[in-house]
Amino acid sequence: MSLRSSLALLLLGAAAASQLLAQAKPTATRAGDLQVGGGYSNAASDYGGRFTGFHVYADFDFLTHVGAEAAFHFVKNGGGDPDFNDIYEKTYEIGARYFRTYGPVSPYAKIMIGRGVFNYPAYYHANLAYNLYAPGVGVDLRVRPYLNVRGDFEYQQWPGFPSNGLSPAVVSIGAAYHFR
């Protein structure tokens, strides 16, 4: 073998050495982890007391501990004075979440921004929307590979709401289908 052939073979071997030490590439990967769910919500509102209703949400976790969440809440005052029975709060939110997983338990923290719609009592004839932000915490409990149960708390801030803003504290419980 000539010097030129030996040198070419040596360079080819050196270039391939990094590939020989590498791990095998995975045969199946996915872009992230998705779950979609809903449940019951209860809000302590600054305007009219306790509101009850429902929520729906979707989480997409695209990194090991980081994901995004989209949520909708509808809570309504259902008690007492008939003039106040038609008051409700609807929120449309999107934000980031940070979570950890410890076996079947996944606690998380989130920060959401969005838009809230407030329906005033009948004698005001008003239905107005406001910007909002909402920090929150919660926990997902995996009860089956495809089913999570969730407990969630949000402290919403509606800074443009007259006169000093609105700050409902929303507690939600529910379940989600986890796409595998």
Structural description of this entry:
It is a single chain. This protein is mostly beta strands. It has one domain: Beta Barrel (Porin), CATH 2.40.160. The protein has 1 helix and 8 strands; from the N terminus they run H-E-E-E-E-E-E-E-E. It has an 8-stranded antiparallel barrel with strand order 1-2-3-4-5-6-7-8. Strand 2 and strand 3 form a beta hairpin. The longest helix is centred in the first third of the chain and has 18 residues. It is elongated.
Main beta sheet: strand number and arrangement? Answer: 8 strands, antiparallel, barrel
Annotated CATH topology? Porin
Pattern of helices and strands: HEEEEEEEE
Number of helices: 1
Q: Which CATH class?
A: Mainly Beta
Beta strand %: over 45%
* Shape, per Cα inertia axes: elongated
For the termini, the CA-CA separation is: 56 Å
Write a short abstract of this structure.
This protein has 180 residues and is mainly β.
Features:
single chain; 180 residues; 8 strands; 10% helix; mainly beta; Porin
Give a topology summary.
Elements: H1 3-20, E1 33-45, E2 49-61, E3 66-77, E4 88-99, E5 105-119, E6 127-144, E7 147-155, E8 169-179
Antiparallel strand pairs: 1-2, 1-8, 2-3, 3-4, 4-5, 5-6, 6-7, 7-8
